[in-house]
Amino acid sequence: MSVQIQPQLRYLLLGLIAWEFVGDFDLVAGGALPSPSEILHQAWLDRGDYGGHIAATLQAAAIGFAIGNLVAIFAALCFVRWPVTAKLCQGINVALFALPPIAVVPILLIAFDGMTPRYILAAISVYFPTMTAMLVGLSEIDPRAADVVRAYGGGPFALLRLVRLRSSMPALLGGLRVAAPNAVLGAILAEFGGGARWGLGTYLLGSLGQANPARLWGIGLAATLIAGLAYFAFALLARRMTGATRAVTIASGALPQSERGSWITLIVAIMLPFIIWWLLLALLGISPIVAKTPFGLIDYLFLAGTAESAQTRLLAALFETLPLALLGMAAGLAIALGLAVLGEVKPAVARTLLPIALVTQTMPLVALTPLLVLLLGRGIAVTIAITVSVTFFPAFVTIAQGLQLVSRAAFDLCRAYGASPLRELWLVALPSALPYLFAAAKLAVPRALLGVMIAEWLATGRGLGNLMNQSRGFLDYGMIWTVAIVSVLISLVFYQAIVLVERRWRR
Questions:
Q1: What is the pLDDT, as a whole number, of residue 247?
Q2: In a designed cystine with 129, which of 146, 178, 364, 406 is the match (CB 3.0 to 4.6 A)?
Q3: Residue 211: which region, alpha, beta or left (left: phi > 0; alpha: psi -120 to 50)?
Q4: pLDDT tens digits, residue range 480-502?
């Protein structure tokens, strides 16, 4: 154990020393990167503030985490048991994950009181990663085990109880590792502009205008520590529960592919999100000035006197955002795949890089963006950096989980024929982990668009993110809803494209 830990501690110590030197002499971004000692000193001075803020964020994250994951697990079970429900709810699933928080938060604050908006956004943040991971785990079963259950007269529920649930545990725990930091981030994002007294998001927002980078980094690192502890708690649980578990056979094609749905199913799947959207607004009784129904958006974009101006602004922003979203998604997936492969070839190096990766995932972008802007400017580079930071980590966890579950017997066969480790990865590991790679791509699609919009909102002042931010300032609720719905539709198109590629590969 000590042989594996010592190099990582050495790298960490060297990194902290270099950080201290750079921060003390203001060598990076004119002092926007304070030294660890400055951050700790400021945190000590602010120690009286942290307790209440951390408690409020933890409460929102924990309750949202529990609610979102329960719904996600139940949904995945329904999707596997009754595949038609997966087709019907596909639009809703991606819509929940793709809704931009900067558009959702004002609506939630108008519709709900107290901590409820935080619970809802935290639950939404964890639903899609857990549901996707659970669905992959329930689907990618050993076909021989399924044949044994069927041979003894077991039906679908017996197969679910005896095979699918047990085989899904590694994937589920991998999804929970992603969901835990997401819950913290969702709670913090819901605190921005909420007017609440307590919460790390509130504390961070109130500290932005104080020209105190050490305080901003202290708040950001506090959020990172909370999210990191949640991540490693589930990583430890996964190691204890499934550390000895290995795939017996390569079961990447174990899930029988259902026939393409009927036109009725397709129409219902398209209409269902709009029906739920309209019903929720009707039940909540929100003013039509703030809450736009589908018919209200049609009027805003095509019938009102300002429709032409709204279309022009929307199309201009769309053409700025889309290419960067595609580029950021490709970069995030490439980095995730590279780090996951590195974890198989050089585990010590991957474990050393993992804390850095976790920081980029869990530190609130409001605290990280000023440094990235000073380092990279306000152009494409900072947008790609922010997009990669919110895209690659869930993809990395998913791909790494798939690589860890590859059949050990298949590796033994390659070694018997003298294959190198890279050859083993190319011939066995990567093909076997392709279902997890497709799942990672599905996770990356909405997050890439969301990352670009956050970068545009906080840094570049361009694209859909800036258009939404301007619309909030002008109280242009029609454009806010338009950008939110358009971003969801774009994510649905990209998501469906990945589904079609996966379906063709399986065939």
A1: 39
A2: 178
A3: left
A4: 888 888 887 888 788 778 888 88
